[in-house]
Amino acid sequence: MGEKQASADGDRRIGRRALLIGGTAAAVGSAVLARDELARLWWRAPGVEKPRVQGAVDFRGAQWVAASDANWRRADRPDDYGIDMVVIHVTQGSFASAVKVFQDPGHGAAAHYIVRKDGHITQMIRELDVAYHAGNRAYNERSVGIEHEGFVDRPEDFTDEMYAASARLTAGICARYAIPVDREHIIGHVEVPGTDHTDPGEHWDWERYMRLVRKVPSASA
């Protein structure tokens, strides 16, 4: 499960960032920097709101349960941050405990999805928004995070239903953003630079999982 990283990924105050952008652009005369940053931020200005549908999910069949606003950052992906990666996590606890901590504003972290042992999928953050799940700001901005109920040292937690449901979810994400279905773009939390996490662990069957993802008709080649 993602660790707390509000301090590392918490640039949620547009006023301060906009001032920094303007000041930096004026100081160094970098029109390219200003144009790039403003293109990412224009819709976050006062009076400009990205259209949202309450309770909408990105994966058909998923159940919407909102994470705390403190555990993610509003964005307009892939327009402001390209999505080219899926990060696989294990909750190190029950499904219910993962939902609870992702709804806790003091936790400082949450993933976009949680997959239960029976294959049920809950979405807690929209894919267009940046979830604090990877412990690395750049990876948060470019990825979708998927948690899986269970413990890394209990292979029995990774059920057939879980693998199948998660594979369909990942295949859909890859198709949506033209992400290659390979191990460079579908990675474990342990593979994120700078992380101290070990999930999904040695018992996660990557060969099986990737085979299942590729078998989904919508999967990106």
From TrEMBL:
Domain N-acetylmuramoyl-L-alanine amidase: 72-201
Short name of any one Pfam family annotated for the protein: Amidase_2
SMART domains the record matches: Ami_2
The protein's Enzyme Commission number: 3.5.1.28
Keywords, ordered alphabetically: Cell wall biogenesis/degradation, Hydrolase
Reactions listed under catalytic activity: Hydrolyzes the link between N-acetylmuramoyl residues and L-amino acid residues in certain cell-wall glycopeptides
Protein known as: N-acetylmuramoyl-L-alanine amidase
Protein species of origin: Streptomyces doebereineriae
